[in-house]
Specification:
The protein is mainly beta and 201 residues long. The chain contains one helix and 15 strands. It folds into two domains: 104 residues, no CATH class; 74 residues, Elongation Factor Tu (Ef-tu), domain 3, CATH 2.40.30. The longest helix has 12 residues.
């Protein structure tokens, strides 16, 4: 279960938003043209809850003093509900080197695997976060299990063959958002905080 500062469990309300640079235009006959500018980031709103016997207030103050708005830090990625239930596999890797802009990657493993749609992943050696757009289950072939991993956004950097696909305990490198937090107090104690973060891209 994801936690903030390894202490405070994520609660609802919780949201994940994908921000993309897309130029839209409508012609006179109302045909729409969309041009993606190959830029994308995820934004998060995460709610955590404390109480009078914990240190949520001081933990948040120390966090803001340390990172402010200009230093990135890691948080547990809030995964979509139920994607944990069907996730299987370990040591899944990219089969071939892939260039920037690719959104369908051949993957393989020595063990059976299943990655559900909506799961957030990263690739070994990169902090960029991707969403799996179609469920993929490894099919046995010639001594290993293979499949095609469809992701969004398309790859933002080139990755090498045998790069590991990180599907569990995924971390996001983020900044604090300017309008970062909404606090709910009770008896002068922070009982609940809704925090905003933007992915470092």
């Amino acid at each position: 279960m994801p936690k903030l500062f390894d202490k405070y469990q994520y609660l609802t309300p919780l949201s994940v938003t994908s921000k993309e640079s897309v130029l839209l235009s409508d012609s006179i006959n109302l045909k729409r043209k969309a041009v993606r500018k190959a830029a994308q980031r995820f934004e998060f709103v995460i709610t955590v809850k404390g109480g009078k016997d914990d240190s949520l207030n001081s933990d948040l103050m120390a966090h803001y003093m340390k990172y402010s708005l200009d230093l990135p830090f890691y948080i547990d990625v809030p995964q979509h509900l139920y994607t944990e239930k069907s996730i299987l596999g370990s040591n899944i890797s990219v089969s071939n080197s892939q260039n920037r802009g690719v959104s369908a990657l051949a993957i393989s493993s020595n063990f059976p695997f299943n990655i559900p749609a909506g799961r957030f992943i990263t690739f070994e050696g990169s902090d960029k976060l991707y969403s799996v757009t179609e469920a993929v289950e490894g099919e046995y072939s010639s001594g290993s299990y293979i499949g095609t991993l469809n992701i969004s956004p398309p790859l933002q950097t080139t990755i090498s063959a045998a790069t590991k696909v990180e599907i569990e305990d995924v971390k996001a490198l983020v900044f604090n958002e300017v309008d970062n937090a909404v606090f709910n107090y009770s008896g002068g104690i922070v009982q609940e905080a809704s925090l905003k973060f933007v992915e470092n891209v």
